[in-house]
Design goal:
This protein is 46% helix and 9% strand. The protein is mainly alpha-helical and 259 residues long.
Length: 259
């Protein structure tokens, strides 16, 4: 898929993997794994200055917009929390909030919060069905909610309405995520989903929404998702962020592509 917009700088490089360059040890639902995330080398950091989303004005404008949105979103989160907590505790075992380490800007670890939408032994249930697990991996670590044995009844409602992602307002306030950016990925997923385009993911803060969400969400292929994030990083403008935010509203209300 070829997308209009900026061009890929050809000077991105990765530093050799090692203790000095590894930013994050992958941590999934089953615990830490051994493969480190490759951090950008000084060459790639210098090259990233040519990417619009990395400029100091861009970062300042995005942070100001994030803070303006974070305060009211945190208020909504505080109001919704007790109601959703009661629904979750009444229907399934486990904590109210699910937290997981994802890959942030420059390969830094980012703890992402969501309302729990799955059963406690989620990965175990999926792995007990080899055929379903194979489909999950081959489909870019996604599976239809209609056949996913991990999702609870309340969780399906939370996901369909995107309320499960409301706790990410805290990430917005802390500055570990942005309103608009790539969808946060697990360390084990970075190379699988992005391949040679990983640097374009690493120069952005993960976003609550982004081109991926307004272009079909879970219906978007892995290759198209990477292309969308490359286009976002190389063609960033504040006006475009505002347009993505406006496009997010009908997408969330219609639950289009929500899994």
């Amino acid at each position: 898929m070829h997308l209009n917009g900026g061009t890929r700088p050809s000077t991105f490089e990765f530093a050799p993997v090692g203790a000095a360059t590894s930013r994050l040890a992958p941590t999934g639902p089953g615990g830490p794994s051994s493969a480190p995330v490759r951090a950008p080398s000084p060459t790639s950091i210098a090259a990233s200055r040519a990417v619009p989303v990395c400029s100091l004005p861009a970062r300042a404008m995005k942070r100001a917009m994030d803070l303006l949105a974070a305060i009211p979103l945190c208020v909504v989160f505080a109001i919704a929390y007790p109601l959703i907590a009661i629904a979750l505790k009444a229907t399934s075992r486990g904590p109210v909030l699910f937290r997981q380490v994802r890959v942030g800007r420059d390969g830094q670890p980012v703890t992402v919060y969501k309302f729990r939408s799955m059963v406690v032994d989620a990965e175990g249930r999926l792995e007990r069905d080899p055929e379903l697990y194979r489909q999950y991996v081959e489909n870019g670590f996604k599976i239809s909610a209609s056949v996913d044995p991990r999702i609870t009844k309340v969780g399906r409602v939370l996901r369909r309405t995107s309320l499960d992602e409301l706790p990410q307002a805290m990430c917005l306030l802390f500055g570990t995520m942005s309103l608009v950016g790539p969808r946060p990925v697990l360390p084990d997923e970075l190379d699988v989903l992005y391949g040679d385009d990983s640097p374009y993911y690493l120069v952005c803060k993960p976003g609550l929404t982004g081109l991926w969400q307004v272009s079909g969400r879970s219906n978007v292929t892995d290759r198209d998702r990477a292309d969308l994030d490359v286009e976002y990083a190389t063609s960033w403008t504040l006006t475009r962020d505002l347009k993505i935010l406006l496009r997010t509203i009908p997408v969330v209300l219609s639950a289009h592509g929500a899994h």
